[in-house]
Automatic annotation (TrEMBL), chain B:
Keywords of this entry: Cell inner membrane, Cell membrane, Membrane, Transmembrane, Transmembrane helix, Transport
Protein name per its UniProtKB record: ABC transporter permease
Bilayer-crossing regions: 25-43, 55-74, 80-100, 107-127, 167-196, 227-251, 263-291, 297-322
GO CC terms, sorted: plasma membrane
Coiled-coil intervals, chain numbering: none
Length: 246, 332
């Protein structure tokens, strides 16, 4: 059964129709590559799944039950994690503070609960180790390299066991070696039975890890097929509009 | 020897010492201490109990408001209305007590006024996306005008049945001869310092100043926090107003005029960054202390008071210059 189903989802910002009548479903343990030109509506689509925006029309179902979210926290409670396109990091905070942003660990009880620095540093360190990233939990994000920043953003998705991980251009700003690490991580997530959506401009990334590819153009879904039945040429044609729809 | 991943991850990048030496607040503290040592030797009147009592007490009014202002500045905002809010709250307290109500009622009315103004500022800024500069500039004008309306622009110096209680609250020294305002300042500084470092609210205040969009995307209740921060700023102005009223024993409609600039100066000298994301409670106090020491010393050294603005202005520029140099070195 599908983990997540989107049925006729649309989103408009005033007169802009960012996402237009999109339906698809995600299976557990499957990596879906989501491709499309700038402004095609990819980020808007995943932000709706992550609880950042509410759809203007259409419904989402998680494990068969209708999913209505008002805040990003609710998406995380449902096991939906996202790496945002521009990483959504605060430069003035430490790596650990960024990893736990919005779900800080606290100790004590009642109104006297204080931030649990020790556990957050330790836990963040464990995740960086798992990601094989040389990132120190106490360092300020301001001083970090592109790869380390990426690791911080990705580490957020590993705080709790997720069902769905959405990655919005996770390989856009990093080195070749780090791209390989991210792709490895995506495979690990898949092997644990997590459904992954990978938004990427890089054709090779999608064709190495994805099981399925969805192409969007001007807010509409124009293709949704197993990667084995498609080709980079076809996808390029779909993105540019040289191929209308498949 | 090869350094393993584990070692890198658990390494601390900066020692405790390097952190202290790298902080603007530390160097301002050094400047304050050096100035005090110098003045103790250069003048007979600086290191007297009476002068020190005066200095510490004079610091408090600016310092208490600078604590609230620091929160606002950390979120990347600004509150220009604090001087006028201080005036309005003092006037509300004065008028209510003058009318025969008890000190408790007077204080409740003053604090209520502060909270309403803070909420008004905050809601316009957070929910209607007004620029903080504009909203609080408007409030600077409105609050002072309301103070004039409330008092019919007269001086109030009789505070009804609880007159003496109010004067003792602001003018007394209930604890080891330390002026009461100083005690309030210390308690509030500890409270704000604790909130910034140890609470989720404090963490969110920094996150908003660092990257408001990121804070929103990760589910930080950005708008509510912003409203709270402007309420705290107005509240700190209200508290300073209450204490100042008790100390002065009179309220005029021009108290607190121009105070917003001193308060912002104190916060900035103490290390708060107007671009947002940086600031401490301790810094606010030290910044206010430096300003007061400069003011006090000019008088004692017999330097014309017209020079005061030049010295305080230079202190602001120097403090920020220091920060620029440090950032420049970091980016090398
Ligand atoms: N918060 C927003 N407000 C208004 N318009 C938006 C907003 N977010 C995205 N859009 C618009 O929606 C369209 C799709 O954007 P986006 O989802 O970011 O595309 P992609 O990620 O595929 O590049 C664009 O025209 C963009 O300008
Ligand atoms: Mg995008």
């Amino acid at each position: 059964m599908a983990v997540l189903e989107l049925a006729n989802i649309s989103k408009h910002f005033g007169a802009i129709q960012a996402v237009n009548d999109v339906s698809f479903s995600l299976e557990a343990g499957q990596v879906v590559g989501l491709m499309g030109d700038n402004g095609a509506g990819k980020s808007t689509l995943v932000k709706m799944i992550a609880g950042n925006f509410r759809p203007s029309h259409g419904i989402m179902r998680l494990d068969g039950a209708e999913l209505i979210m008002h805040r990003p926290v609710e998406a995380r409670q449902h096991g939906i994690e996202i790496v945002h396109q521009d990483l959504a990091l605060c430069n003035n905070l430490t790596a650990a503070a960024n990893v736990f942003l919005g779900r800080e660990l606290r100790r004590g009880f009642g109104p006297l609960r204080v931030l649990d620095y020790k556990t957050m540093y330790r836990r963040a360190g464990e995740i960086f180790r798992e990601l094989k990233s040389e990132t120190r939990p106490r360092d300020l994000v301001r001083q970090m390299s592109g790869g380390q920043r990426q690791a911080v953003a990705i580490a957020r998705t590993m705080l709790s066991e997720a069902k769905i991980v959405l990655m919005d251009e996770p390989t856009a700003a990093i080195s070749v070696r780090q791209v390989a690490e991210v792709l490895n991580l995506i495979r690990q997530l898949r092997d644990r039975g997590i459904a992954v959506v990978l938004i990427s401009h890089r054709m090779p990334d999608v064709f190495t890890v994805a099981d399925r590819v969805i192409v969007m153009r001007r807010g509409r879904k124009v293709a949704d097929k197993p990667i084995a039945l498609s080709s980079p040429e076809e996808v390029t044609g779909l993105i540019t509009g040289a191929i209308e729809q498949v | 020897m090869a350094i393993t991943l584990d070692q890198t991850i658990s390494q601390k990048q900066q020692s405790w010492m390097a952190k202290v030496l790298g902080s603007q607040t530390f160097w301002i503290l050094v400047a304050v201490i050096l100035a005090c040592i110098f003045l103790s030797f250069a003048t007979d009147s600086f290191a007297t109990t009476k002068n020190l009592y005066n200095i510490t007490r004079n610091v408090t009014f600016v310092a208490i408001i600078a604590l609230g202002m620091t929160l606002v500045i950390i979120t990347g905002g600004i509150d220009l209305s604090v001087g006028s809010v201080l005036c309005l709250c003092s006037m509300v307290l004065a008028v209510v007590m003058h009318a025969g109500y008890s000190i408790e009622v007077g204080i409740a009315a003053a604090i209520g006024t502060a909270l309403v103004i803070g909420a008004f500022n905050g809601i316009l800024i957070a929910y209607l996306d007004f620029p903080p500069f504009v909203v609080t500039l408007g409030m600077l004008s409105i609050a002072r005008s309301l103070a004039m309306v409330a008092s019919n622009n007269t001086v109030v110096f009789q505070f009804g049945p609880d007159h003496d209680k109010l004067l003792a609250l602001g003018g007394g020294a209930w604890f080891f001869g330390i002026a009461n305002p100083v005690l309030y300042m210390i308690v509030l500084a500890l409270l704000i310092g604790f909130v910034l470092r140890w609470t989720r609210f404090g963490r969110y205040v920094f996150a908003i100043g660092g990257n408001e969009r990121a804070a929103t995307l990760t589910g930080v209740p950005v708008r509510k926090i912003k409203v709270a921060v402007y309420m705290i700023s107005a509240l700190s102005a209200g508290i300073a107003g209450i204490i100042q009223t008790g100390w002065l024993g009179a309220v005029t409609t021009n108290i607190g005029a121009g105070m917003e600039l001193q308060v912002i100066a104190a916060a900035v000298i103490g290390g708060a960054n107007l671009a947002g994301g940086v600031g401490t409670a301790f810094g606010a106090i030290i910044g206010a202390a430096l300003i007061e020491v400069i003011r006090n010393s000019l008088g004692l050294l017999g330097i014309n008071a017209f020079w005061q603005g030049t010295f305080i202005g230079s202190a602001i520029v120097l403090a920020v210059l220091f920060d620029r140099i440090r950032n420049f070195r970091l980016s090398e």
